[in-house]
Amino acid sequence: REKKMLTGKKVLVSAGPTKEIIDPVRFLSNHSTGKMGFALAEAAHQLGAEVTLVTGPVQLETVEGIKRIDVVSAEEMNKAMLDHFAGQDIVIKTAAVADYMPKKQYQHKLKKQPGDLQLEMVRTPDILKGLGEKKTTQYLVGFAAETREIERYGREKLERKQLDAIVINDISSMETGFGSDDNAVHFISKQGANVTLPQASKQRIAEQLFTEILKEVELNDR
Ligand code: PMT
């Protein structure tokens, strides 16, 4: 029997998109389906971890044994991640978080007016950056969806957000990234790992990512 590598460890994963509400019928969001984040949560569960999954609005079911927290907006996701951050061993931010939200939420449906509409937007909290600043012993992993200069932008985020590792998601192909069943990523770590994981199912990519993460978490434990 295979030894469960994450027994006794706590893993926190964020998944899916956020939805930023404009009025009772309209919102701003993105194409994330939650598949990659759910695959990571399930892989961690399979490896014996105690898993908490914070997810934006998605159509996916959670396997039994994973603690799921549903949120809608970036602000709610930020609160849920901060509330559950203490005591985690590994934290992975797969969610595609909105960078801006409408300055005002309208209580009633906005009426059509003659001419154009201008919607004022403000920045959402940078969740990952906040976690990086709060980090004590957590191994913190970010994701970065990039279409070009993949490695340069990834490394830049790794440093700026004080991460232990970044998973750079190449979203230039239709078969990988948002919504697809497959993914293709690069894993780059502060300790110097630079691993390319070629196209495979999101489940397989999740398992491979934990293999890479575990190599580093075990070194830290020694
Ligand atoms: O859900 P799927 O359909 O399976 O698609 C998976 C995915 C493509 C969404 C996923 O693999 C992925 O790449 N997620 C990150 C997408 C993203 O929004 O990247 P980013 O470069 O905008 O953000 C970088 C990192 O900062 C991410 O870890 C993000 O969670 C985090 N972030 C961003 C903005 C913000 N306000 N707070 C954050 O914490």
Could you name the key traits of this structure?
222 residues, alpha/beta, Rossmann fold, binds ligand PMT, metal ion binding, ligase
Distance between the termini: 25 Å
Biggest pleated-sheet summary: 8 strands, mixed
Domain count: the total is 1
- Give the low-confidence spans: none
Classify the secondary structure makeup into a structural class: alpha/beta
Mean pLDDT: 94
H/E series, N to C?
Answer: EEEHEEHEEEHEHEEEH
How many H/I helices? 5
Name the beta content range: 25-35%
Note the overall shape: globular
Cofactors, ions and other ligands in the entry: ligand PMT
Strands of the biggest beta sheet: in what spatial order? 5-4-1-6-9-10-11-12
Write the CATH architecture name: 3-Layer(aba) Sandwich
How many β-strands, per DSSP? Answer: 12
**What is the rounded Rg?**
18 Å
- CATH third-tier fold name: Rossmann fold
CATH-defined superfamily:
CoaB-like
* CATH class designation: Alpha Beta
Instruction: Give the oligomer, counting copies of the same chain as homo and different chains as hetero.
Output: single chain
Quick structural overview:
By secondary structure, this protein is an alpha/beta fold.
Report on this model:
The chain is built from 5 helices and 12 strands. The chain is 28% helix and 28% strand. A hairpin with a 4-residue loop joins strand 11 and strand 12. Strands 5-4-1-6-9-10-11-12 form an 8-stranded mixed β-sheet, with helices on both faces. It is globular and about 65 Å long. It has a single domain (10-99, 117-221), classed as CoaB-like (Rossmann fold, 3-Layer(aba) Sandwich). The model has no long low-confidence stretch (mean pLDDT 94). The protein has 222 residues and is α/β, with parallel strands linked by helices. Helix 1 (35-46) packs across helix 5 (202-221). The longest helix has 20 residues, at 202-221. The structure holds ligand PMT. The site of ligand PMT has 27 residues, from helix 1, helix 3 and strand 9.
